[in-house]
Structures are given as structure tokens and as C-alpha cells.
Amino acid sequence: MNAIKNFLEFELLHLGEYSIRVYSLVSILFIFLITKFILWIIQKALYRKEKLNTYEKGNLYALFQIIKYVIWVISIAFMLETIGLKITVLLAGSAALLVGVGLGLQQTFNDMISGIILLSERSIKVGDILTIDDDIVKIEEIGFRTSKGQNRDEISIIIPNSLITTSKVINWSHQTRRTRFKINVGVAYGSNVDLVMKILNESAVAHPEVKKNELIDVRFLDFGPSSLDFQLLFYSENIFRIEKVKSDIRKIINQKFLENKIEIPFTQMDLHLKTNHTDLFKKIN
């Protein structure tokens, strides 16, 4: 026992009034392991349900992140106390340094505060689909300083949290899981308007990703410069891959137009040339 006691009290480092002994490192390791174990228990308790929808997962993720940050702050405070560092004394003694660091890392602190706002406010959750800087991004993780997402090209996007909280962001998943989309199409003048509207409606119904029980609307928009302009509106839950859905519906529309001999016109321009007949006569003679 004396050997163990002597080993634990062995001094590794001595700085002024403070000394780091073996038992201090053992205590720090013990606190670290206990913290990890507590977080593991909390995570298992929060996600104990086998089936959770996207909304529930997003809320639980935000709650767990806040709990994790609080527990780690308390844990680090205990670790510092273990080696004899008083938190209040440490903060008071380094006040000037903290001011300088704060000014230098102003943007970083801004991102951190924004991360806390996102996790507590929960206006943005994991799984939400956002439009940020004209890019469609699916949020995969909300961190303390940055959030991580994936765009439609399967590219990981690292987003500073302050960009989400201070910029105009469209959240396609905020109110409902299905959203209305539109496809514009023009047909040649002289086409049967009723038949065109019927074909557009049938084309949307034919796609499996379109919500059949929601209103599918077809509108005659305008008399364009070279076409009769229509708009097809439909609802879909496949928000992230909606461009693929639109592409498939356009293929169905094009096939039905070909079967019914409905033309999609291309832009045409008439070119008028004016010639000076006097100069032309002189050149001929």
C-alpha cells in the first residue's frame, strides 16, 4: 500500500505554488472517463426509441449537444480544480489576455454564440434542407462553431454558424415535409389549350414522387412572344432530389406532347435587310 501511495504522490512537475502529481493525472483521467460514460448514458436514454422521425431526431440532437457542452464545461472545471487551479483566480488573472484573444477571435466567438442559438432555438435541425448562397444543402451536423452539410453534388459543405443566423436562409423543411414546386413549359400557338393542361396534369400524376392527394394545379400563364406559356404546380416530399423529379416529369411531358403532336416552339426572329438602291445601281454600272 505504501508503494502505491508513494507512486500516486510522486511529483511530476512543480511550478511555484502548484505541483502536478501522479494522482492528479489519475484523477483527470477518471473524470474524463466518467464524463464520457455519463454522456453515453444520456445519449442512449434520449435515443431509446427504435423509430424516430426526422423532426424528433433533430430536436434530440440539439438537446444532446447542449447537454454535452454543459457537462464538458463542468468536467473541465473539475479537472482544473484537481491540479490546484482555481477557475475564478485563473479568469481574473488572465482578464487582459482574454480581452486580447476575444478581439482577435471575434468571428470565432460569433460562430460559437450562433451555434448555441441554433441548438437552443431549433429553427434549424439536423436533416433540414436549406438554401444557402444559392446552394441547396442538407444539414448533417450542427457543431459548436460550424455546421456540416451535403449539397446535391454529394460535396460536403462546412458552414460557419454565424452565416446561418445572420443571412437570409430558406428552410425547405421548417413547416412541412412536403413542398410545392413548379415546371414552366411553352407550346406553339394554335395548340389545344385544354389538351395541353390535361397532359401536364397527367404527367405529374404519373410520377411516383408527386403527392397524389395534394392539389396538382395547371395554369395558363400568358401569351408569350413565340409560345403559349403554362405552369405545372405539384407537391413532393423529395425536396433534396427535386431536380431529378422535375427532369422525369419533363420527360413524361415531352413524350405525351409527341404522341399528341403538340409542338414546343423555339424562339424565332425575323431579320429585315435594307439596301441603298442608288449605291447598288452605281456599283452595277
UniProtKB/TrEMBL annotation:
Q: Which residues form the Mechanosensitive ion channel MscS domain?
A: 108-174
User: Which compartment or compartments is the protein found in?
Assistant: Cell membrane
Give a yes or no for keyword Cell membrane in this entry. yes
Mechanosensitive ion channel transmembrane helices 2/3 domain boundaries? 65-106
Protein's UniProt keywords contain Iron: no
Positions of the Mechanosensitive ion channel MscS C-terminal domain: 182-264
UniProt KW keywords: Cell membrane, Membrane, Transmembrane, Transmembrane helix
What is the recorded membrane topology of this protein?
Multi-pass membrane protein
Its domain of life reads: Bacteria
Q: Gene3D superfamilies annotated for this entry? A: 1.10.287.1260, 2.30.30.60, 3.30.70.100
Fetch the InterPro entries from UniProt.
LSM_dom_sf (IPR010920), MS_channel_1st (IPR049142), MS_channel_C (IPR049278), MscS-like_channel (IPR052702), MscS_beta-dom_sf (IPR023408), MscS_channel_2nd (IPR006685), MscS_channel_C_sf (IPR011066), MscS_channel_TM-2 (IPR011014)
> Its principal location?
membrane
Q: Where are the transmembrane segments?
A: 20-39, 60-79, 85-105
Q: What PANTHER family does the database record attribute to this sequence?
A: MECHANOSENSITIVE CHANNEL MSCK, POTASSIUM CHANNEL RELATED
Can you tell me which family this protein belongs to? Belongs to the MscS (TC 1.A.23) family.
- The molecule here is called Mechanosensitive ion channel family protein
Species this protein is from: Namhaeicola litoreus
